[in-house]
Amino acid sequence: MKIFLDTANLESIRKFNDMGLLDGITTNPSLMSKEDGNPKDIMAEITKIIKGDVSLEVVSTEYSGMIEEGKRLRQYGKNVVVKVPMTPDGLKACKHLTSEGIPVNVTLIFSPNQALLAAKSGAKYVSPFIGRLDDIGKDGMNLIKDIKKIFDNYKDDFQTQILVASIRHPIHVIDAAKIGAHVVTLPPAVLDKMLQHPLTDIGLENFLSDWKKLKTGI
Ligand code: G3P
């Protein structure tokens, strides 16, 4: 399973990239708005740091604007994936950009039907938002199961990858991996939690205090 970081925070991106954990990055206008600095500089820097796919999102809502912005976003690097919303214009833009060799991530997916249509349009990734479904009392993980089943049924027709988004905690990651989702995109706080275990901390403390008793270096 690939791990993307769901952030535009350069410090977090560098931190986890230095551990070799990141296969890519996803951003969106809300994530960009949380960062200080010029968004253009931030986008340029992310595409320099990360070798894998970097999703950058359009803000136009109509087809020609999405195409124009998509092409401009692609100038930031060959690893840029253009993120478009799951709308009729978004799908039209997806088809067009894909036909020009520009990969597309269709975002704001909340139903299996939307995922199926985005795949038909040629999307490289579909981004189902599971946390936001959980928030309204629907089981977001069921959506991932349904999309996986549908894509598996038509393996020869679709190369589209399921990019699980709106992840809120480490259990989401385990469940998505059990289902076989291709990618999870994680807020830095979730990736931090995945690293930690209290028994690791206690074990390390014991190792270090036992070694101290030997009164020697290595
Ligand atoms: O990648 C989409 C993700 O950022 C949405 O997450 O937590 O705003 O639902 P959230």
Could you explain the architecture of this structure?
- With 218 residues, this protein is α/β, with parallel strands linked by helices.
- The chain has a single domain (2-212), classed as Aldolase class I (TIM Barrel).
- Helices cover 51% and strands 17% of the residues.
- It is built from 11 helices and 8 strands.
- It has helices spanning 10-18, 29-33, 39-49, 63-74, 88-99, 112-120, 130-135, 140-153, 170-179, 188-195, 198-213; strands spanning 2-6, 24-26, 53-57, 80-85, 104-109, 125-128, 161-164, 183-186.
- Strands 1-2-3-4-5-6-7-8 form an 8-stranded parallel beta barrel, surrounded by 7 helices.
- Strand 7 (161-164), helix 9 and strand 8 (183-186) form a beta-alpha-beta unit.
- Helix 4 (63-74) crosses helix 5.
- The radius of gyration is 19 Å and the shape is globular.
- SN-glycerol-3-phosphate binds at residues 6, 26, 28, 129, 131-132, 165-166, 185.
Q: How do the strands and helices of this protein lay out in sequence?
A:
Blueprint: E1 2-6, H1 10-18, E2 24-26, H2 29-33, H3 39-49, E3 53-57, H4 63-74, E4 80-85, H5 88-99, E5 104-109, H6 112-120, E6 125-128, H7 130-135, H8 140-153, E7 161-164, H9 170-179, E8 183-186, H10 188-195, H11 198-213
Parallel strand pairs: 1-2, 1-8, 2-3, 3-4, 4-5, 5-6, 6-7, 7-8
Helix pairs in contact: 1-3, 4-5, 8-9
Bound molecules: SN-glycerol-3-phosphate (G3P).
Provide a brief overview of the structure.
51% of the residues lie in helices and 17% in strands. The protein is an alpha/beta fold and 218 residues long.
